[in-house]
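Recap from last week: sequence in, structure out.
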Amino acid sequence: MKNNIRGIDVETTHVETILKPLGGEAPTLPILHGLSRPSSIARRVAATLSGALIIACLFAHPACAQIWIDLNKPKVGKMPVAVLDFQSSQPGNLSGAQLAGILKNDLYVTGLFAIVEPSPPIAVGTEGDPDFESASQQGVQALITGRFSLAGDQFVVEARLYDVALKKLLLGKRFTGSMADHRLIMHKFADYALEKLDKIQGGFATRIAFVDTSHTREIFGMDFDGHNLRQMTANRTLNLSPEWSPDLRNILFTSYLNRNPDLWLLDLAGQKPYPISSRKGINASGRYSPSGDSIALSLSLDNLPHIFLLSTQGHIIKRLTNGRGNDISPSWSPDGTFIAYTSDRAGSPQIYTIPVGGGEPKRLTLNGNYNSDPDWSPRGDVIAFTSRIDGRFQICTIRTDGTDFRVLTNKGSNQEPAWSPDGRMIAFSGNRGGKQQIYVMDARGEIQTPISPIPGKSPAWSRNVK
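Predicted structure tokens:
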């Protein structure tokens, strides 16, 4: 996950005051006529909803209109946003339409935005200001423009987000990196833009690990949109249930490398695996705590698998579950105080939660006779899981108090949900069209897109790192 991308604010002071109520016109930012390497570096951009989402436009006064995203009312339309082709003064292998296309896809898959393709095209003046009247007449509320240059392998891009109603700049960023970084740079700007519009950092500049469906079941990683596929393991044995460390330096996974389902850690820098738990029997579905200082794991020390807490070196800290049921697939709450897991203690697989500090488990799911694979939303209020409905597996969500059960998928068989780090999207494995693939959908299930370039299952979404 390391890179040499540099990102700085363009006129930071003005950007930060745009969203405050203004008594009059706020100065817009001048477009730079020459893009050069930044002389100072601001913070590195980090690559981190469930429930109801809506887009609204708030007008307290015409002079201080503000576009914003209201998370509580799901029946208002999506925010119309236009992304213009990025401008460049020189021809090359990379086009402005390609850069704009990356941003369009990022915003679209969240389910929050309606992508407007302007006709006639929205002009951008010589000083960089877009034609706000044309954008407004076409119903655009948020507008993204940009320009870029290539010098050898160095890629420099400046991108801007505007509030059309206010005719004001909301966000301006300039990035430098190599040509190979151009997709990551666009994802990073989309993260910034989404945070500006609804106050929560985006999760576009992240990775998804998954297991391929070959007979060896190797672990691969890819960008959240399926690009930049990389193979992570090549041990020619059965590998299962990958999990990113919070700092993205390691991958936990269960492997039969020594002919037993042991828990391993893969150092991504050195590409070397290390055993974490090699106890006889099951060592499955290791999951890092939010702080990264402990691991929840399913161990079968007394023949039945139960949930244990381990140190990152593999030492047992405590046993969380007991009883006659099989307890598997732990998932931490974002504050690290609870764990959701699957148990058949009542006769069929169901989702339970248990306090990490100790206490009695609480059954969460009551619908159906097969519910498994819980994954706790980073927002803390919802758990996604797999449920068998009418003979097929589907992705569902339920609130942590057991209310608001929702079915999000209905095509084919779908399993193993994994939340994006911002809680806006869910990755899952599905077998539609006779092919097992990784899909990404928005938290309401309205937009479902296959992304894996090869057949895969068991997705694990990386976290954001600041």
